[in-house]
């Protein structure tokens, strides 16, 4: 008797689709951090993981770009921005944080450009 295994390509596609749908359901906010360091990025990762409220979904040190997400209903984007800036206050000085409207794709492009300089 011969068992047939499911093809890996359709399974990978299904997993990718489920992961992207989860990210698309999340509300995201972009932040520009002046002179972001690797140590600060690592602290933000640790802090957001411990808080459970916000998640760091993308970070690029050379561009100083962070993209944070939340599953929790946040109301308006302004409320989410305020929560993100307040959450980063223990790690990064508020004067260095500039909330920006940026998609994940645009953040990746900004990172590529910053690394290319």
How would you explain this protein's 3D organization?
- By secondary structure, this protein is of the alpha+beta class.
- The protein has a single domain (26-116), classed as 2-Layer Sandwich (Alpha-Beta Plaits), CATH 3.30.70.
- 49% of the residues lie in helices and 20% in strands.
- It has helices at 8-25, 38-51, 77-88, 104-116, and strands at 27-33, 55-60, 65-70, 97-100.
- The chain has a four-stranded antiparallel β-sheet with strand order 2-3-1-4, with helices on both faces.
Q: Largest sheet, if any?
A: 4 strands, antiparallel
CATH first level: Alpha Beta
What's the helical proportion of residues?
40-55%
Radius of gyration: 17 Å
By helix and strand content, what is the structural category? alpha+beta
Shape: globular
Distance between the termini: 60 Å
The CATH topology: Alpha-Beta Plaits
CATH architecture: 2-Layer Sandwich
Strand order of the largest sheet: 2-3-1-4
Q: Domains counted in the coordinates: how many?
A: 1
- What proportion of the residues form beta strands (DSSP E)? 15-25%
Q: Which segments are poorly predicted (pLDDT under 50) over 5 or more consecutive residues?
A: none
Number of strands: 4
Let me know the average pLDDT: 78
User: What is the H/E string?
Assistant: HEHEEHEH
């Amino acid at each position: 008797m011969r068992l047939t295994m499911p093809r890996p390509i359709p399974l990978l596609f299904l997993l990718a689709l489920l992961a992207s749908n989860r990210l698309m359901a999340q509300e995201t906010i972009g932040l520009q951090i002046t002179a972001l360091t690797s140590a600060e990025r690592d602290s933000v990762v640790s802090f957001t993981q411990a808080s459970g409220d916000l998640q760091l979904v993308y970070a690029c040190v050379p561009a100083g770009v962070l993209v944070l997400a939340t599953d929790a209903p946040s109301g308006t984007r302004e409320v989410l921005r305020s929560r993100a800036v307040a959450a980063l206050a223990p790690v990064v000085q508020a004067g260095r944080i500039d909330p920006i409207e940026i998609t994940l794709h645009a953040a990746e492009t900004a990172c590529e450009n910053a690394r290319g300089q």
